[in-house]
């Protein structure tokens, strides 16, 4: 049997080794996350060009291979319009937010504070400046990556489920395409604005992200109710469509449950976006 002192030393060594390993993993993850965010920030113009080119190619293919082919250029443009709007929406969101919130600017705090969980005091200007200059790190990086990935994921879902429809196709098909186009255009636009606001440490970012979540759920519920009252829709189309909408609602709820508490109590979020630190800090 080992002595109590030796067992204590072994336990201490194991605990120290475990903490060291966890710290190394977290530091590596933090560096990877910051590198990923900087990549999106610095290469955004290249990504935009690739995005537009990819969506335009897909739009062309879907229009040419439509079940009911176009009989004129004008008809073909009308069939491709939903995909052209998809190509433009996140780009417009990025341009709008990037122009409104320049890099390096420390924006003023909102007049009314909504996040009142915990005891906080105003941070010094130096602490705020360092936090803004340092950019996003830690778990905040995971949130930013999740936000930006919402854009291609929603786009792929749209492209996989929505065909190019001819003006002569059934009315229910036009209603589905219209509803899903509004959804994907609005949400890719809003999520791109959220991403830029987070990158630029804009104080309104947490509120705008909450607004995007509410808009996302409202659109899914609204589409489900709207499409449920669409006459003539085949069951083979309705069932997978409603499954997609319910899946989107679940994904938004999961995001809210994970990230809303973090946005309220995180020291980094409160310093970077609300310019405050804990009262006992």
Question: What would your notes on this structure say?
Answer:
- The chain is mainly alpha-helical and 281 residues long.
- The chain has one domain (34-278).
- The protein is 76% helix and 2% strand.
- It is built from nine helices and two strands; from the N terminus they run H-H-H-E-H-H-H-H-H-H-E.
- A two-stranded antiparallel sheet has the order 1-2.
- Helix 1 crosses helix 5.
- The mean pLDDT is 83.
- This is DUF2569 domain-containing protein.
- The chain crosses the membrane at residues 46-65, 77-98, 131-152, 172-196, 208-228, 240-265.
- It comes from Novosphingobium aromaticivorans (strain ATCC 700278 / DSM 12444 / CCUG 56034 / CIP 105152 / NBRC 16084 / F199).
- Keywords: Membrane, Transmembrane, Transmembrane helix.
Short descriptors:
281 residues, mainly alpha, two-stranded antiparallel ribbon, 9 helices, 2% strand
């Amino acid at each position: 049997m080992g002595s109590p002192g030796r067992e204590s030393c072994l336990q201490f060594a194991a605990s120290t080794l475990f903490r060291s390993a966890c710290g190394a993993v977290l530091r590596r993850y933090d560096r990877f996350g910051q590198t990923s965010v900087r990549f999106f920030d610095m290469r955004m113009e290249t990504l935009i060009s690739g995005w537009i080119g990819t969506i335009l190619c897909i739009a062309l293919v879907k229009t040419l291979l439509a079940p009911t082919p176009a009989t004129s250029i004008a008809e073909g443009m009308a069939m491709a319009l939903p995909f052209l709007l998809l190509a433009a929406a996140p780009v417009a969101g990025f341009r709008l937010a990037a122009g409104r919130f320049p890099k390096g600017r420390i924006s003023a705090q909102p007049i009314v504070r909504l996040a009142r969980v915990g005891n906080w005091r105003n941070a010094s200007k130096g602490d705020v400046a360092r936090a803004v200059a340092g950019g996003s790190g830690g778990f905040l990086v995971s949130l930013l990556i999740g936000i930006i990935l919402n854009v291609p994921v929603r786009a792929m879902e749209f492209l996989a489920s929505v065909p190019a429809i001819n003006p002569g196709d059934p009315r229910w098909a036009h209603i589905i395409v219209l509803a899903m186009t509004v959804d994907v255009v609005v949400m890719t636009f809003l999520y791109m604005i959220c991403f830029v606001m987070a990158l630029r440490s804009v104080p309104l970012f947490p509120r705008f992200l909450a607004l995007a979540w509410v808009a996302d759920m409202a659109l899914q519920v609204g589409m489900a109710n709207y499409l449920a009252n669409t006459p003539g829709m085949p069951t083979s189309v309705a069932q997978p469509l409603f499954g997609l909408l319910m899946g989107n609602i679940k994904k938004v709820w999961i995001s809210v449950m994970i990230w809303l508490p973090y946005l309220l109590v995180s020291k980094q979020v409160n310093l970077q976006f609300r310019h405050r630190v804990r009262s006992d800090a």
